[in-house]
Amino acid sequence: MLLGGGFSLDTDGLLDDYLLSLAGGRRARVCFLPTASGDSTEYVERFHDALDGRCRTSVLRLFQRDREDVRAAVLDQDVIYVGGGNTANMLAVWRVHGVDRLLVEAYRAGVLLCGISAGMLCWFGAGVTDSFGPLRVLHDGLGLLTGSACPHYDSEPGRRPEYRRAVASGALPAGWALDDGAAALFRDGVLAESVARRPGAHLYSVAPAADGVVRETEMPARLLI
Which domains, and CATH codes, for the chain? Predict the structure, then answer.
């Protein structure tokens, strides 16, 4: 599983290059799930602009569903790439269409699951989200990775203090926080590698410590060039 993505926020393609290197390059079948954005047409176009010709691309839309066999659309892939947007809405729509169960099945079958923002948070059981307006705790994720998560750790001012507060208070279990421009690869639920497209972007382990504070550990990141 790869947390963090490229084309949503980055223009140099380094994180997407890294993703494709894990999945077989041009032979890789990559399916984009833009559910969190309400299947935004502009977001889908950005996906195609970034990855068409570099791999075999497809899109699974659920708001204007155009596939009868959703199971095949999910499982006949090397990569499922989940975009950003409203995490809570995305999870609800997935459950209506049974996509939540299919993603669990795909994970167990060895499909590489990845994504940014909502597509980073959804794989955990819990995390911090702005799905309801103000930042708040969400306990509704898929739970494929243990602990909690927080995206946009360095780019959205409220994220870091809210996540630290939630972990310190016990509202969230220990977990992982990710700066924009960084990505983290997990294999069998264990961190395998952290990479970054720019200096200063990191993955952090965030855990409760004594006296109601947290221990935040910056993980070593390999700089992509």
Answer: 2-223 (3.40.50.880)
